[in-house]
Amino acid sequence: MITAPTTRPSGDTTSAAGLRATARILARTDAHGTTRLPVLDGSGPFALRRLGFPGPQARVCMVGAMSAPLGGDRLAVEVTAETGAQLQLTAAAATVALPGRTGDAATYDVRLTVGDGARLDWLPEPLICAAGSDLWMTTTVELAPTARLVLREEQVLGRAGERTGRLHSRLTVRRAGRTLLDQETAYGPGVPGWDTSAVLGGHRAIGQLFVVRPEFEEAEQRVRLLGGAAPERPDAGGGQGVLTPLTGPAALATAVAPDALRLRTVLDEAARHLPG
């Protein structure tokens, strides 16, 4: 974990250049077991599109309607999958954090709530931190005791051939009120040691796959090296990672790679090794 300045921009900060926008999604099952979407509301850069036909699992794609987040923006996504609902969220393209007209940082807060017997797959495309950007991102997940979660998070530091912006990220996952995971990272200008061999070692793409399933409590799990870190994969193309069981019915894969494509390859490998 990289220590970073802890002064997060306030949501009440007024910025003439900043945008305030929230996307809200609510998934609920009907009497036939079909997952419906009574709330599907996006504003600003968030255009929400239903995918496919009604069925046991609802699918939503987030489409960027404008460039965001820019410096000074305050963005949020609030997703609730109620008891028994099944919901998958994807994105049409990567999110690119850009500098704004002022030196203000942007914030992007994701809040996910999953009820008993419900499943949420949070599978956005990568977040790219362009040169000059400054983004504070938080993801907070609240799970009921029998909830299921698949959460993929991918971050790319800089576009091709450019330096990275600054990224401060925190992921907190709680199950039945108890913390499963709480981690905080920071990268980019002004963050000491972020690009040393002890942290990224020159890599520019980092990501993780976090999976919670009640059946993991009975499954046998072990630490597994992924990609180029695994002895049986010396030709993995530069991406490497580790898949680790956590206390509670959860598993976490963490990976680094030279680019987003090779990062996704390592995370897909992790998914194939999960129990069941």
From TrEMBL:
It holds the Pfam family UreD. It is found in: Cytoplasm. Keywords: Chaperone, Cytoplasm, Nickel insertion. The keyword Chaperone applies. HAMAP family: UreD (MF_01384). Required for maturation of urease via the functional incorporation of the urease nickel metallocenter. UreD, UreF and UreG form a complex that acts as a GTP-hydrolysis-dependent molecular chaperone, activating the urease apoprotein by helping to assemble the nickel containing metallocenter of UreC. The UreE protein probably delivers the nickel. Belongs to the UreD family. This is Urease accessory protein UreD. The lineage of its organism: Bacteria, Bacillati, Actinomycetota, Actinomycetes, Kitasatosporales.
